[in-house]
Amino acid sequence: MCIRDRPNRVVMAPMTRNRAGPGNVPGPLNASYYAQRASAGLIVSEATQVSPQGLGYPGTPGIHSAEQVAGWRLVTDAVHRAGGRIFLQLWHVGRISHPALQPGGALPVAPSALAPAGQAWTLDGMKPYVTPHALEAAEIAGIVEDFRRGARHARQAGFDGVELHGANGYLIDQFLRDGVNRRTDRYGGSAQNRARFLLEVTAAVVGEWGGERVGVRLSPTNPYNDVTDSNPATTFATAVGALARFDLAYLHIVEPAASDPVAAGEMPDLKFFRKLWRGVLIGNKGYDLARAEATIRDGAADLVSFATLFLANPDLPERLRRGGPFNAPDRKTFYGGTAAGYTDYPPLGG
Ligand code: 8OZ
C-alpha cells in the first residue's frame, strides 16, 4: 500500500483508549474496534509504547513483547479482512510518567531534569509528576534502538506502516522544544540539535520500513504536557526540513488552536508546512465536514484526520459522503473501561 492509493482522504487519528489487556497486550476487543473503522483511508493506531520505560498510563498497548506482537496481529488481521489499512503509532512518553509505572520504580527519563506541571495517572490514582532523570548520550542511543525494535515488531505484527509520535509533549517533542530541552550537548541548544533525536529515530525506523511506510506526527504549538517553545516556526521548520531527505509517507500536523499560547515568529499552520514539505500532508484539529472539505478543496492538506468524530462514528467516511448524521462522542468512556463507548457506537442503519 502506498499512502497515495487510499480509497478516500479520511484518516482515523491516533487516540489513546486505555483498553489493552494485562501486560499491555491488545486483544479481540481492540481488533473489533479497529475493524469497525476499516473504511478509513488510513487508520493510525493509538499511541503504543516501544519499551516498558516508554509507558505513561494504565492500559496503553506496547510493541516490545512477543505477546504484544501476537495481540496486534489480531488487530491487523481484522482490519485487513475488513478491507482497511493501519499504521502503528510508535511512542515513548519520556517524563510524562511516574516511578509507579516504571520498571523497578525508576525515574522517568527526559532530555533535561525538569518536572512537568500536573499529575500522572497511575494504577493507584493521580500522583504529581516527578523530576525526571536527564538522559545520558549513551542512554539516548538505547532508546533509538527501542524505536527500531518497535518498528521491526510492527512489521512482524502485520501493520502497513508506522507513525512516529513526535507530538503532544512526549519524548520526541520534549527534545524538540526549547522550554523543556535545556541540554548543552549535541541534542540541545540549536533547533538542529533539538531535532537530532527525532532524526535518529526516523532513520532507525525508516531502516526497518523504508520511508514510504513511515509517517511523522508533530504538534508545533500545542502546550499539552507542559511543553513550550520560544520560536515554534524555527524549531519545526528545521525539523521538517531535515525530515525531507527520508521521503516519508506523510507529515501529520496537529494544527495551532486559538487556545495555544502565542509565540514569537510565523504561525506554524498548514500553509506554513505546505511551503516546506513536498510530500503528503495530513491536517488535524477538531475538523468537521465543512472545514475538511474546504481544506482539501483549497489544497491546504492532502488528507484530514478525525479523532473523536471517528471514535463515535465507525463508518465516518460514509457519513461524511452523505453529509451526516453523526453520533456524538461520550467523553466519560474515552479512556479505559469496556466495550461500552468503544465498540457499541452504531453504524448508519445499525
Ligand atoms: C490522551 C490521554 C493519554 C494520552 C496524546 C497519547 O495526546 C496521547 C494521550 C491522549 O498524544
Characterise this structure.
The protein is an alpha/beta fold and 350 residues long. Helices cover 31% and strands 15% of the residues. The chain contains 11 helices and 12 strands. The strands form 3 sheets. It has an 8-stranded parallel beta barrel with strand order 1-2-3-8-9-10-11-12, surrounded by 5 helices. Strand 11 (281-284), helix 9 (289-297) and strand 12 form a beta-alpha-beta unit. The longest helix has 20 residues, at 137-156. The mean pLDDT is 97. The chain binds 2-Phenylacrylic acid (8OZ).
Question: How many strands in all?
Answer: 12
Amount of helix: 25-40%
Record the strand order, biggest sheet.
1-2-3-8-9-10-11-12
pLDDT averaged residue by residue: 97
Binned strand content: 15-25%
Counting DSSP H or I runs of 4 or more residues, the number of helices is 11
Task: Give, in order, the helices and strands.
Answer: EHEHEEEEEHEHHHEHEHEHEHH
- Overall morphology: globular
Main sheet: strands, sense, barrel: 8 strands, parallel, barrel
Assembly level: single chain
Q: Poorly predicted ranges (pLDDT <50, ≥5 residues)?
A: none
What is the gyration radius calculated from CA atoms?
19 Å
Ions, cofactors and other ligands present here are:
2-Phenylacrylic acid
Structural class of the secondary structure composition? alpha/beta
